[in-house]
Design a protein that fits this description.
Mean pLDDT of chain A: 85
Oligomer: heterodimer
Largest interface: A-B, 49 and 55 residues
CATH superfamily of the largest domain in chain A: DD-peptidase/beta-lactamase superfamily
Structural class of chain B: mainly alpha
Low-confidence stretches of chain A: 1-6, 228-233, 606-610
Structural class of chain A: alpha+beta
Strand content of chain B: under 5%
Largest sheet of chain B: 2 strands, antiparallel
Radius of gyration of chain B: 22 Å
Shape of chain A: elongated
Order of helices and strands of chain B: HHHHHEEHHHHHHHHHHHHH
Distance between the termini of chain A: 136 Å
CATH architecture of the largest domain in chain A: 3-Layer(aba) Sandwich
Shape of chain B: globular
Radius of gyration of chain A: 36 Å
Helix content of chain B: 55-70%
Number of helices of chain A: 23
Largest sheet of chain A: 7 strands, mixed
Low-confidence stretches of chain B: 273-280
């Protein structure tokens, strides 16, 4: 090669080996890195890859049904389609959102405002419910245009449906979606779950909820489902590794309620405020229970805005208020049977003792206590006093008794304490004793005048309808106290018995059977005697024992009360009726009792004396 | 000529290249393939990648054949012209409407191509021609300045496009070719090693996931000690080398702590994308998941799940190596690296064997081209290099890269049958 020196090969070879050294070093490093990723940490990344594409979808288990004692459906589930919006996707399709809202009939401006507030509250991008229950048109629009409107999602949900409408609404209760607060507290709940909020739905929530299932689906990067998982993954892996399992529906709750009787009672009780309880004294099963005013629980079916809920919750008539266990009233003259028991059992009087005659009022100190009958009853013994509900007779008993005697007698009949019925928010009422008056008015600053009122069930004493009913039951049972309850049994979906309404029988030994029988006879006179205050409850061919009550109400008309049990020799039903602002118990409540007893004992239409 | 062709033709360059093209096509086929029973998740264009790339491979092979036949003297003769033409096209990209926020593309008569890819050929030719001149000693300041200028013009233009990944190829070519021409090794090492030390130090101290960076840093430091020992004749330089790297490793953490938190976060997001899975680090995270879940033998061809369900981004272009590693496993992943290594090593040997100085320099440039692309691209997919968007030669979807790679392979073959020509 003319003009060009031969190159120094050794120099080039040295450079070549340096470069080779560098290249091979890097490649070996990469091979080690690949080995680390693909062999050593393979399992870790395999799991990551799996969780990337696998989504565990919850299958919400339907709640159990609530049925009457024979199995008739009182609460069932219906599928409702809910429209959710995915905040993350809206941003990409703002102009389509307006079109979608136009088609679906949604106020787009309001939706945007709500969505902004939602995103601020939940920055994790969770979906917001736009329509709680879509109508058919909305469903079909979204189904046909799911590609066009990827930000909307149709979700099928089970919602509670009450085929009988407002029947026994307060007993059945209602459900609601869990709040964040619920989720934090329980640790088991998930967003979107429904839990019982009142009534049996609340009390037996644990049995009614099913166990949610898990469906394993494969998704792509946009979270779009691409298929059931077994396309790529074996079923076995899905079950073992990812916990795929079917959902199990909740258990069916059978109430003690008798649908036929309940329907009759609902119809018969034509009063706007008050309650009725019909119970079997032998086992405490509640056969019918009504609280008025009532609401239709199906309003929850299509979801409820916050305003709607507020309106319902703050209604002046307190629609959601369950008067059966939550309302407290002075028992009025119904309490006289307890006063009579207290007097007889403490030996203050005997059954034959005649007290000072009633002249229409009674003078105590310089105060005058009136009897309900201004003309007066004359001199009476205990039986007659109960029959005619003579206030003056009981004033005199009140004068002889102490507050503690009232309290201990009332306590034996279950007053002043929760009955233990399986409904939430039961009130205990008030059964005043000596300490109570001392606390309330100051020691020595109250007079026996309070006890005169106590003796006829007025004043500080407060009772719930269920307490009055349970009290009457003790008289009907001659001393046997049974816990009232609403659930007869709970069956699993396969028909296994999981729970039976426990009959907690508590024979109150300190009760004197003879006295109870005596008072029972007097109560029979109330209905069947010539001068009985409860004659309007009388039914030919049935021995009924009852007691009327008229509760003085400083805010308006008196409350009408009536308790009864029948037949007297072997009671099958006990009932308690409270009619707010209705007037006299004998005139207003007793006829209702007659109709209910007639519906129970003579259910054939023609045999009903109407 | 015919006899020489058969005797000297380097099959160890052509066959691995063809195999890589084949694997690339199969991978693109897999990307566009959806098994029955799964709802269509890929976009319609993805199913056409395979056919489109098939056509480009055809063009590439024709270009390869042409590059073998033309005597290489011709390329030396036209080096400057080639460089200028490429530069003109590169400038032309700025006159066109930018697409997707960057002006990288140019289209002539319906053909779209990336001038920055072809610019690599222009730079290799011109640098090779300039440095192969006997009088141009690389340790001379004038020569260094001209070499820098040759590289800087396209480098800055491409940075401006912006396409940081592609632009980094040019400094790499320059350093490799200067080294080959005889740039003082000690100075080279003194420039490069502290940069690498700084990177590794930041990496190893602020990784959020337990990783191998501290180990890498240790290995790198040992490497520096070895180099220092081997170059112990120039004891002063060796001491400076070790001292500089040690200083970097000690000072960088100190400097780091003075930065504001948001500044630290930005740098970390660049250096260690895993720290922000849904942001910039999403791609690398998903790529590692794809590769790691592939295991030793892979999920089998067409059965990758990461690729299938679109978790792996850019799976047809920048992250095509992840798809291969997922479906063919460790064996496939290493196999691809071995195929590239064969080409690069054969080219290195060819560069020493070439009698012609231009051809030797150009061969080394081609070597550097393949090595840099492969290392940066695969390094990115395994999380050892930042995400830069550099294609993997022969495999990533894209015409320009395919044609340039084929042309360069053709050139290597051309040199191999004419190695004894001056």
């Amino acid at each position: 090669m003319p003009g060009i020196e031969p190159r120094d090969d050794s120099v080039l070879k040295a450079r070549r080996s340096s470069l080779l050294f560098l290249l091979l070093g890097i490649l070996v490093l990469f091979a080690l890195r690949l080995f680390h990723l693909q062999v050593i940490r393979h399992e870790y990344y395999e799991k990551l890859a799996l969780s990337n594409r696998i989504q565990r979808e919850r299958i919400m288990a339907p709640r159990g049904f609530i049925r009457d004692r024979e199995g008739a459906k009182l609460v069932v589930n219906v599928p409702v389609y809910q429209i959710d919006i995915l905040p993350a996707k809206v941003r990409m399709f703002v102009e389509r959102l307006e079109l979608a809202c136009d088609w679906l009939g949604i106020d787009v401006e309001r939706l945007k405002t709500n969505l902004d507030a939602w995103v601020e509250r939940y920055p994790d991008g969770r979906e917001m419910t736009v329509v709680q229950a879509a109508d058919k048109r909305q469903i079909s629009i979204l189904r046909e245009n799911c590609e066009l409107f990827p930000f909307f999602k149709l979700v099928m949900k089970h919602r509670r449906h009450y085929p009988e409408g407002s029947l026994a609404a307060h007993v059945l209760g209602y459900v609601g979606e869990v709040t964040d607060e619920d989720i934090r507290r329980s640790g088991k709940l998930n967003p979107g779950d429904q839990i019982g909020r009142s009534g049996v739905e609340f009390a037996y929530n644990e049995y009614l909820v099913g166990s949610d299932g898990v469906k394993v689906v494969e998704i792509n990067v946009d979270g779009v489902r691409v298929g059931e998982v077994d396309v790529i993954l074996e079923e076995r892996t899905a079950v073992e590794f990812l916990g795929s399992r079917p959902s199990e529906p909740g258990n069916d709750v059978y109430l003690t309620i008798d649908l036929g009787l309940q329907r009759s009672v609902e119809r018969i009780f034509a009063w706007n405020k008050g309650s009725v309880i019909v119970m079997n004294p032998a086992n405490g099963e509640i056969l019918a229970a009504v609280s008025r005013p009532v609401y239709d629980p199906n309003i929850f079916l299509y979801g409820m805005s916050e305003e709607q809920w507020k309106e319902l919750d703050e209604d002046p008539d307190k629609l959601l208020f369950n008067r059966i266990v939550q309302a407290t009233y002075p028992p009025g003259s119904v309490f006289k049977i307890v006063t009579a028991y207290a007097a007889l059992s403490n030996g203050v009087i005997t059954t034959g003792t005649r007290l000072k005659p009633c002249s229409g009022s009674y003078r105590f100190g310089n105060r005058r206590f009136g009897c309900w009958k201004p003309a007066g009853h004359g001199a009476l013994a205990c039986r007659g006093a109960i029959e005619q509900s003579c206030d003056v007779f009981f004033y005199q008993l009140g004068e002889m008794l102490t507050a503690d005697m009232f309290a201990s007698a009332g306590g034996l009949f279950g007053l002043g304490a929760k009955t233990g019925i399986d409904l939430p928010s039961e009130a205990s009422g008030i059964l005043p004793d000596n300490d109570y008056y001392n606390r309330r008015f100051g020691k020595g600053k109250w007079t026996k005048g309070l006890l005169l009122n106590y003796s006829i069930g007025q004043g500080e004493i407060l009772t719930t309808p269920i307490q009055i009913c349970a009290m009457t039951m003790v008289f009907a049972n001659c001393g046997k106290k049974v816990t009232p309850h609403l659930v007869r049994k709970i069956l699993s979906p396969e028909g296994r018995v999981l729970y039976t309404g426990d009959v907690r029988v508590d024979v109150v030994r300190r009760l004197d059977r003879k006295i109870l029988e005596f008072i029972g006879t007097a109560m029979e006179d109330v209905v069947s005697g010539d001068t009985g205050t409860g004659r309007a409850a009388g039914l030919p061919g049935l021995r009924i024992a009852g007691k009327t009550g008229t509760v003085q109400n400083p805010h308006g008309e008196d409350h009408a009360l009536f308790v009864a049990f029948a037949p007297v020799d072997d009671p099958e039903v006990v009932l308690a009726i409270v009619m707010e602002n209705a007037g006299h118990g004998g005139a207003m409540a007793a006829p209702v009792a007659r109709k209910i007893l007639s519906a129970y004992f003579f259910p054939v239409a023609g045999a009903r004396p109407e | 000529m015919a006899e020489r062709f058969v005797h000297d033709f380097d099959w160890l360059i052509l066959v691995p290249a063809l195999l890589l093209i084949g694997f690339g096509l199969l991978t693109l086929y897999s990307v566009g393939h959806v098994p029955d029973g799964i709802r269509e998740t890929i976009q319609p264009e993805e199913s056409r990648y395979f056919e489109k790339q098939l056509v480009r491979c055809g063009i590439g092979l024709v270009v390869l054949a042409i590059a073998v036949v033309i005597p290489f003297g011709y390329f030396e003769w036209t080096a400057l012209a080639t460089y200028i033409v490429c530069l003109v096209f590169l400038l032309a990209t700025f006159l066109l409407e930018p697409s997707r926020g960057a002006s990288r593309w140019i289209s002539i008569g319906g053909l779209r191509f990336q001038p920055s890819e072809f610019m690599k050929i222009g730079v290799i030719f011109l640098l090779a021609k300039f440095l192969s001149a006997k009088r141009n000693d690389p340790n001379n300041l004038r020569v260094l300045a001209v070499s820098f200028a040759i590289v800087c013009v396209p480098f800055l233009l491409i940075v401006k496009q912006p396409d940081l990944g592609t632009s980094l190829v040019f400094p790499a070519l320059l350093i490799a070719m200067l080294y080959w021409r005889g740039l003082n090794e000690g100075i080279l090492i003194l420039i490069i090693t502290p940069v690498i030390s700084a990177f590794l130090t930041v990496y190893s101290q602020w990784t959020l996931e337990k990783d191998s960076y501290p180990f890498l840093l240790l290995v790198f430091f040992l490497l520096i000690l070895v180099i220092a020992y081997r170059r112990r004749r120039n004891i002063f330089q060796s001491i400076v080398l070790v001292g500089m790297n040690l200083a970097v490793m000690l000072i960088v953490p100190n400097l780091w702590n003075r930065l504001q938190v948001y500044q630290q976060k930005r740098i970390l997001a660049f250096l260690h994308p895993e720290s922000d899975i849904l942001g910039a680090g999403w791609q690398v995270y998903q790529s590692k998941v794809a590769i790691g879940s592939g295991g030793f033998l892979g999920k089998q061809f067409l059965h990758g799940t990461q690729k299938l369900l679109a978790f792996l981004p850019e799976r047809h272009s920048d992250f095509v190596y992840s798809v291969i590693s997922e479906e063919l496993g460790y064996l496939g992943a290493v196999g691809i690296l071995v195929l590239f290594a064969i080409i690069i090593i054969r080219a290195l040997y060819l560069a020493t064997k070439m009698k012609n100085r231009f051809a030797s320099m150009a061969t080394l440039g081609i070597c550097a081209y393949f090595a840099f692309h492969v290392i940066v691209n695969t390094g990115m997919t395994v999380g050892l290099a930042p995400v830069t968007g550099l294609p993997l030669p022969f495999m990533s979807y894209g015409g320009s890269s395919m044609i340039v790679s084929c042309f360069l392979i053709g050139l290597l073959l051309n040199f191999s049958i004419r190695f004894h020509e001056y």
